[in-house]
Amino acid sequence: MPRSEEAEWWANAVYEAIQEIPRGKVTSYGHIARLLGEPQRPRQVGVCLKVLPPAESGAHFNNDTVPWQRVINSKGMISHRTRANIPALVADVESSGPGSAQRQADVLQSEGVEVTTDSMGEMYVSLAQYGWFPSHLPSEQDEDESENSEV
DNA sequence: TAAATGACTGACT
DNA sequence: AAGTCAGCCATTT
Fold first, then answer.
1. At residue A21, what are phi and psi to the nearest 5 degrees?
2. Which nucleotides of chain B are near protein (any atom < 7 Å from a CB)?
3. Which residues contact A79 (CB under 8 A, 6 or more apart)?
4. How far apart are CA A1 and CA A9, in angstroms?
5. Is-above-0.70 flag for pTM?
6. How far is the C-alpha of A72 from the C-alpha of A69, rounded, in Å?
7. Is the CB of A34 under 7 A from strand C?
8. CA–CA separation, A62 and A87 (whole Å)
């Protein structure tokens, strides 16, 4: 697990930013990247979460101290932890191990966040209702979001 | 050392 | 409205 100094700084910054997300709210990978002044690196935010140490590791930042479950993609969907473009393997990863998408949905619901599942089995959270975007940028225009919604 | 991947996005078709 | 593409860059192969 090679961790350069720079990567270390980035990971710590990401974890700290994620700790600011209030319980019961969610935000996107891209938003965390923007908060850190690196708007073009949402993927690296995902990488940090992937390598987040288990709670029993004793690390300062771990699965218990960082609310990893509150980070989802810009479409409001809980991202898959794919291991390849092979659908057969996706199911395996999806199975409910620690940190799996299903696990994420369970934890979120325990915090009071509603998770809905569409016809294709994808799990969504309404960003309009649960989204946390403090440094909201003016470039976006909210229109309709009737698809993932509540009610 | 080089090539492929991926807890992503926004623009473009 | 839904699918495709091109950037992104640390990790893995």
1. -70, 125
2. 5-10
3. A46, A72, A73, A101
4. 15
5. yes
6. 8
7. no
8. 29
